[in-house]
Design a protein that fits this description.
It comes from Halogeometricum salsisoli. By secondary structure, the protein is an alpha/beta fold. It has 12 helices and 18 strands. It is globular and about 70 Å long.
């Protein structure tokens, strides 16, 4: 048995400035795909499962990047060509892919659907294709048309990415070994939902994820999923979805389960509140100043690099500089290559003038003076801890998500436990930061990942959509 594998992973923020080129992606072609962990999060679970089953694996291509602005057409076309070239002339029994599911290309709002259609055209109508998708995938009609089976993350923060790859590969292997066809049941519904309101340990998401596990137990159902889409993309395909994989012989049940899951989610639509105490920025800092819990970690939720924002707004930092009741707070991270270079040239302990980041929405930099304290390379990014007037800030030479791990700030010489207030360019915190934080707050800052979705300038999202249209109705 021979199965082709590949990965294409991007969550595109269409509100973010600029475009994303191929150079931004980590890529791997051919056998390199099997040995790297940088081109997808579920591909490792897929490969391991197929390996264990003694299957011959045909590696194609992998490409993954931190969430970022709209992807350039040339970048996507390169990925697609690599997929098709690798499959050309090959006879495979199945295809198993690791896709995020929310990529947006300059002239193609549905690249995953476009890719799957092209792969389908190459491997033929009878070769099964399964995929692992992120919980924040935007599912499209074309994706459903060309996919036979789907597994999605059931945790947010995402801690089951490898297991999801195992599930996608198992769906394919079981179908091939059992000689049964797969069926999909798909029920989209008109709703936008931020991850900051739908962590899987918070209600109502916790109960809804439990329903997926119950659904898996139904006769003929193999893998039931919710996909929540990605609200910081102005996509004509935006929305939430129930998507269920089962046996072809149980198509009616599979569709029924998808409808039931969608209806239950929709019924609870107004229960999705912020999973962390959320305030306007000024009130969040007041709360941070007054609490006894130390450290309090404040998420700068309008500028989340993990959701594609520029990681360079200084609105919250400016507000922190204007106060003296936060101890010596730490801000991680502001991406600004010129400021990083200025710090490097000045050297440790030397004062340096900085025009840092940008105030949103004016774009004006924050004019300040700082003293570089410590330098460090982390995951390919050059970073420096800079002491400003009363606030320490970590500046990086590029966008990076390294602050997800509190060990990173420890390696720069800052023990989080010794700071009263730490501000992170984050939405919901990583499990490690939840552990380190005595109290967590959301500062609802303006920016490219604005949490007040109704304030975003959507033009392509179908209307009515909840909560942009509070009175939106939907009935199957
Ligand atoms: Zn996600």
């Amino acid at each position: 048995m021979k199965i082709a594998v590949g990965a294409m992973s991007h969550e595109t923020n269409t509100f973010a400035m600029g475009t994303t080129s191929l150079e931004t992606f980590d890529t791997a072609v051919g056998s390199d795909l099997l040995t790297t962990d940088r081109v997808g999060r579920s591909i490792g679970g897929i490969v391991e499962t197929l390996d264990d089953a003694g299957v011959e694996i045909l590696p194609t291509v992998g490409a993954s990047a931190l969430p970022a602005p709209t992807v350039e057409t040339e970048a996507y076309e390169w990925m697609k060509r690599e997929f098709l070239d690798a499959l050309d002339g090959e006879s495979v029994d199945g295809v198993c892919l690791d896709l995020h599911g929310s990529m947006f290309v300059a002239d193609e709002p549905d690249p995953e659907g476009n890719l799957l259609a092209a792969i389908r055209n190459t491997v033929g109508p009878n070769t099964m294709i399964t995929a692992a998708l992120d919980m924040h995938a935007t599912v499209t009609e074309r994706m459903v048309e060309h996919l036979d089976g789907v597994a999605g993350y059931r945790t947010a923060p995402h801690t089951d990415v490898v297991e999801t790859g195992v599930r996608a590969a198992t769906l394919l292997l079981d179908a091939l070994n059992g000689d049964t066809d797969l069926a999909l049941g798909w029920e989209p519904f008109p709703m936008l939902l931020a991850g900051e309101r739908s962590e899987s340990e918070a209600e109502p998401m916790c109960t809804l994820v439990g329903l997926l596990e119950d659904a898996d137990g139904r006769e003929g159902v193999y893998d039931a999923n919710y996909f929540l889409g990605f609200p910081w993309a102005d996509s004509p395909h935006a929305g939430c979805h129930a998507l269920v994989t089962g046996a072809a012989g149980a198509q009616v049940v599979v569709e029924e389960v998808a409808t039931d899951l969608a209806e239950e989610f929709w019924r609870r639509r107004d229960e999705f509140d912020f999973t962390t105490e959320a305030y306007d920025p000024g009130t969040a800092l007041d709360e941070a100043a007054e609490t006894d819990a130390r450290p309090v970690v404040v998420a700068d939720t309008g500028d989340i690099p993990g959701a594609g924002a520029g990681e360079n707004t200084t609105n919250l930092l400016a507000a922190m500089l204007a106060r003296d009741d936060l101890g010596t707070p730490l801000v991680a991270v502001v991406a600004d290559v010129e400021c990083y270079e200025a710090c490097r040239e000045a050297g440790r302990g030397e004062d340096v003038r900085l025009s840092l980041g940008r105030l949103y929405p004016s774009g004006e930099p924050l004019e300040t003076t700082g003293t570089p304290v410590a330098f460090r390379e982390e995951e390919g990014a050059q970073t420096v801890l800079v002491s400003l007037d009363g606030v320490d800030v970590i500046v990086a030479d590029r966008r990076t998500n390294v602050h997800r791990d509190p060990e990173f700030v420890r390696r720069l010489g800052v023990d989080p436990a010794t700071r009263a207030v730490i501000a992170l360019k984050s939405g919901y915190l990583s499990p490690a930061w939840k552990e380190a934080a005595a109290r967590r707050l959301f500062a609802l800052t303006p920016g490219e990942t604005n949490q007040q979705l109704a304030d975003l300038p959507y033009e392509r999202v179908p209307r009515p959509t909840y909560p942009l249209d509070e009175d939106a109705t939907w009935q199957r």
